[in-house]
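Handoff note, outgoing to incoming analyst
You'll be picking up this chain. Sequence as last confirmed:
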Amino acid sequence: KMEEFLHLTQLKTSLKEAVLLDYYTAGFWWAKEMNFSLTQLSGFMDLLNFALENLSNKHMTLGENLKELERAMSGIGKTDSEERGDPNFFSIEQAKAIIDYLVISLFKHYKAYEYLFHGRREEPVISNE
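Most recent structure output, in case you need it:
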């Protein structure tokens, strides 16, 4: 289902697509194990996508991406969100767990992801030889 949702068409031959499928699938199952509500799950997947898009499309450095993540998560834990009963609200503990997850899944491997998205790879030459 994730393959269809992400519109991955070359999964068997594209390392990039295989990595993206693994990244999003692992994140989805982690969030399910955290017992996030459907709205929280959606918000978490948006954060995963946000961090990856900052790297892949905006060519942000690790430091820039961390600053953007901080801005994106800066409203978490505010009391007015609790009073409104905002379903997007993550508790402080959940926010810390999300940050830990992003560090382990993406930021510790940032150079590898940079290479995946921006590294120059030569096309293999296929011949009769």
